[in-house]
Amino acid sequence: MPEIGKLLPALLVAGTMGSGSAFAQAQAPTPLAPTPTTAVPASSPAPSPDQANDPELARGAYIATAADCVACHTASGGKPFAGGLKISTPMGDVVSTNITPDPEHGIGKYSEKDFEQAVRHGVRRDGSNLFPVMPYVSYAGMTDQDVQALYAWFMHKVEPVPVSPPEDATTLPAGMRSAMMAWNYVTTMEKPETGDSGTFDPVRRGRYLVNALEHCGTCHTPRNFMLSEKQDRFLSGASLTGWYAPNVTSSKTSGIGSWSEDDIVTYLRTGRLDGHAQAAGPMAEAVEHSLSHLTESDLHAIATYLLQVPAMEDDLDVKPRDSFGKPQEVADIRHDVLKRIDDLTEMDGADIYDANCAACHGHDGAGTRNHYAPSLFNNTTVGSARPDNLIMTILKGVDRTTKDGHALMPGFGATSDVERLTDTEIASLVNYLTATFGSGDHHVTAQQVADFRNAK
Q1: How far apart are CA 56 and CA 278, in angstroms?
Q2: Shortest CA distance to 21 belongs to which of 176, 121, 165?
Q3: Which ranges of the chain have pLDDT less than 70?
Q4: How far apart are CA 92 and CA 261, in angstroms?
Q5: Which of the residues 22, 52, 174, 453 could staple to 94 if both were Cys, CB 3.0 to 4.6 A apart?
Q6: What residues contact 111, with CB distance under 8 A and at least 6 apart?
Q7: Residue 35: per-residue pLDDT
Q8: Start-to-end Cα distance in the chain
Q9: CA nearest neighbour of 286 among 86, 70, 96
Q10: Whole-angstrom Cα distance, residue 1 to residue 145?
């Protein structure tokens, strides 16, 4: 299979179900639909009265919301599911397609069988293969009933939008879809579940959510040279466009094995666990648009399953990421003489922290009393042996909204509205934070920060 290896960069490009060029990945997971008697949680948009009275439409709405389809298939300021969102990949930019039921511009001509072939097998209506950025490798495990409900909801409750998104701007071999036939043959796909997924016992339901609908492995499982998920390292952590999706196995050192079931549920529902972790980047999107809308029983099912996933250890971890650090007795380093705006003297990490971070996180790193600004010690991001997420959080910030409230931290990257820090300044700040509140000075360099800043 040597020729497949030459085509592997194409796997990073989204495929299409509609008439456009990219059926983009759902960056947040797709959870299990409830049984007809299960209450449907709030979603965006909320189910209409006829959906609430129609078990299949209610089920489809729940799947679509939990799958976070709207996040990738809605451009900024655009109509839901009409596509047009630009997604950067190493092979160029792809644009998500219109997946509304418009017959000319969307998926309105798809039969239920066409829809099923695309969702579970990665084959679109015209017979072309989708690229597995659309996670059909995981969706292959969906039940017939759930696929049918999802199809019914898209066809009957989503507003048709007669718009064709712009074309992709990708480079070869990104357009060589025929290579996917061979790749599909050698990769591992989920086995289709049978029966009513809403009646599964908690462990089976959790496995179905995590492995198939939520496709957690898409981000949290490392990949081999063929870009297939390493099944022997399931959920052990992987890099993702600059961010690092951490180990979420039952390991008490490298994973989340030291968290209780309720801890995991709280984090999935709110995006934070005080004194432990906060969701940012792709995980914040997953929480905001998907996980926070799941039923409590589904969240507990996920937690139950994750806590029995075989532990995977990471050689870089010596103790849990959220166990490092303590409040610091740091003297106020501000001076009587104000710093002039035209003073270009390079500041060290402590000065940068004092000027940009201490107002919210405190000189001692304890954050605010209500935990809106989190503590920097006992913090999985600062305590991680990998500085990836700390660098990305400083660059990109945090913007997450759930029923629990709005979490906002400004980024300090090139588009910052508060302060645009250089690569050297961010490197100094990261090293100060990890040395003072975390797992030690990681000796991050300006070049490393530049690499993260430009990550795709």
Answers
A1: 35
A2: 165
A3: 1-52, 89-92, 170-176, 330-344
A4: 41
A5: 22
A6: none
A7: 39
A8: 27
A9: 70
A10: 36
